[in-house]
Amino acid sequence: MDIIDPNLPEKTPLILVVDDIPKNLEVIGNILCLENYQISVAGDGQKAWNILQRISPDLILLDIMMPTVDGYTLCRRIKTMEDKKDIPIIFVTAKTSPDDLTKGFELGAVDYITKPFNAAELSARVRTHITLYRAKKRNEFLIGELRTALGQVKKLSGLLPICSGCKKIRDDQGYWNQVEAYISAHADVRFSHGICPSCIRTQYPDLANKILGNYNSAQTLSPAADRQGKS
Predict the structure, then answer these.
(1) pTM over 0.85
(2) CA quadruple 103, 104, 109, 112: dihedral sign
(3) Where are the domains of the chain?
């Protein structure tokens, strides 16, 4: 099934109409064209099956009584197609017995319209199920995006066992890791290295004295002396 990206312009809905009576195809086609839908037609179930190998409509209007492959059989086949099984199917039929309607729903149809049909009813049912179908596809797209985003996020939480001496962190397997190595493996961060004043004094005392000496000398200059030095 195609996934609809809500950030892209929405395409005109495509409807596949399947009926072995040309007049029915013509009438339904005329009604749906007034709603600005794209229409594809098939005169029997086998032709519709062949068409479905090439396209993914937003809805299928399906007659039940047809030669070669009837509507029930075609519906059952469609529901075995991984990329087509969620396409809403509406039966358009003269068969109105409870058993016939129940069978259609059990096979996966979402609705039915009885013949002879009313144009306003046909348009309303088609519009409703296309809206529901597209909303479902948009939700699937957003859920997929969220799952992708969550998969890229690594979160640190809870208590971290850290050595009071060397400050290494113990991982879940009992190994002790440098702080930056552990955090890099569990969070989306990179490190830039510097050195703090305390470490400068303990590890580089000569450099610290020079830096601090220059800093203290600069601090003792008065504003007047500073101006004289610049003149």
Answers:
(1) no
(2) negative
(3) 14-150, 166-193, 194-231
